[in-house]
Amino acid sequence: xxxxHSARGLVVDDxxxxxxxxxIAPGGGLTVWCPPGGGLEGDETPSEALAGExxxxxxxxxxxxxxxxxxxxxxxxxxxxxxxxxxNDYFLVPVATAFEPCGSLxxxxxxxxxxxxxxxxxxxxxxxxxxxxxxGHAIYPTGLHACSRMDHRVRWNSLFGHHEGxxxxxxxxxxxxxxx
Length: 180
Description:
- With 180 residues, the chain is of the alpha+beta class.
- It contains five helices and ten strands; from the N terminus they run E-E-E-E-H-E-E-H-E-H-E-H-E-H-E.
């Protein structure tokens, strides 16, 4: 079973806001908010793919060290046509302040990939969201809510733990600093 491997950046600003993009699934039946990132090409590592995707999608080039915080495997052919599922590697990417995303790929190319636009989501907004749109994963509200209350020092397992049907990160015991 072929799995599509992607790297995603949990880009968080100094106010614990998470940058997400609005993706409208083909057919318009589902709108999903996702962190920036995309598929690995050739023999790229997840870190290399992340660097390229952050540049292309949001124009972020100089972000220092990104911390790998989670490895997810979903074996379900229904989630991606032509694939048996997905592998997602998530990286924490703290930034000093929010910025207007403007990637090197350009708006037209992103629109062709069904990326509508980017927004910064506060913890309160994430927790109170009750619209028809969904999040790429349910970790955002609970994780960022916990981050905001722990003096910006977080332990990945204590925030997100092991999720049913998903593989826990081999890096789940590390501490990640949100201070950048």
